[in-house]
From TrEMBL:
Name of this chain's protein: ABC transporter permease
Transmembrane segments: 21-41, 61-88, 100-119, 161-184, 205-227, 247-266
GO cellular component, one term: ATP-binding cassette (ABC) transporter complex
Lineage: Bacteria, Pseudomonadati, Pseudomonadota, Betaproteobacteria, Burkholderiales
Record keywords: Membrane, Transmembrane, Transmembrane helix
InterPro entries: Permease_MalE
Origin: domain of life: Bacteria
């Protein structure tokens, strides 16, 4: 295939690349719509599906929850200390804690949680789905009257969304606690000022944007690797080019969501 692309003229290569990307994005949107319909359908939560869904949610969340929380706490404590000491040296101590909250909780933690879930859970799940497809397991499910999307893909997508939101929510709480401890220590005297600052930062509009960004991050890291595995061309299910294409699309979506969030928060 690479040789054939080299033999093509530049406009033909551009056209084929654009068509391939348009087809990939249309499949992601279509699969997202299918998953949304299945999530809202009561028939998707039968006895067998419930057990499979609970197992994937546990396996995608429990093994990484403690490690990511500890890592987030250490990073938050170190960054809080760096920002506070730097702000004190420039006489900007009154803005230090608000800067920490805005940078860590609003921006870094949701993105870090989504990327962590992608690397540890959803991308390996996509590889598993690709092997199932190439080995004929999904076709065997169809022959036995089962829907492969409902049986194999839906639990993985829901588990990825759940893991990303859970890690982001828990890490945000830990970051708020560590930021307070990094500035005031084990002292409750700074709690009134801290709660006022927290209310100033998390206005209703900012809170809504934060929730939507976390949700869209989780949808992106959960859905795009599954779509890349399910709709890969025959023979490309486990090729590096196919995996890199899925990663590129996922990072592009995360970047667009982050840019939209920054514009909504600060412009």
């Amino acid at each position: 295939m690479i040789a054939s692309l080299v033999d093509l003229s530049w406009p033909e290569r551009v056209w084929r690349t654009a068509r391939r990307w348009a087809l990939a994005w249309s499949r992601i949107v279509y699969l997202g719509a299918v998953v949304l319909v299945l999530v809202l359908s009561p028939s998707s939560y039968g006895r067998g599906t419930r057990g499979r869904l609970a197992r994937h949610m546990y396996l995608n969340t429990a093994p990484i929850l403690l490690g990511f929380t500890v890592l987030a706490a250490l990073i938050c404590l170190v960054l809080t200390r760096i920002v506070v000491v730097t702000a004190l040296s420039y006489g900007l101590s009154r803005y230090a804690l608000e800067m920490v909250i805005r940078v860590l909780v609003l921006e870094l933690i949701p993105l870090t949680a989504a990327l962590f879930v992608a690397m540890r859970c959803t991308i390996p799940n996509g590889v598993q789905l690709a092997f199932m497809r190439s080995s004929g397991h999904l076709e065997a499910l169809r022959r036995h009257g089962a829907d492969p999307v409902r049986v194999e893909l839906l639990p993985r997508v829901v588990a990825g969304v759940y893991a990303s939101i859970t890690l982001a929510a828990l890490s945000c709480v830990v970051a708020l606690v560590m930021a307070y401890l990094g500035v005031y220590g084990f002292n409750l005297s700074g709690l009134p000022a801290y709660t006022r600052m927290f209310g100033h930062v998390f206005s209703p509009a900012v809170t809504l944007l934060f929730g939507l960004k976390t949700l869209f991050f989780s949808l992106a890291v959960a859905l795009i690797p599954m779509a890349s595995a399910l709709y890969a061309p025959d023979g490309d299910a486990v090729r590096p080019e196919s995996e890199l294409g899925g990663l590129a699309r996922m990072f592009a979506v995360l970047l667009l969501i982050e840019i939209a969030s920054l514009m909504g928060n600060y412009y």
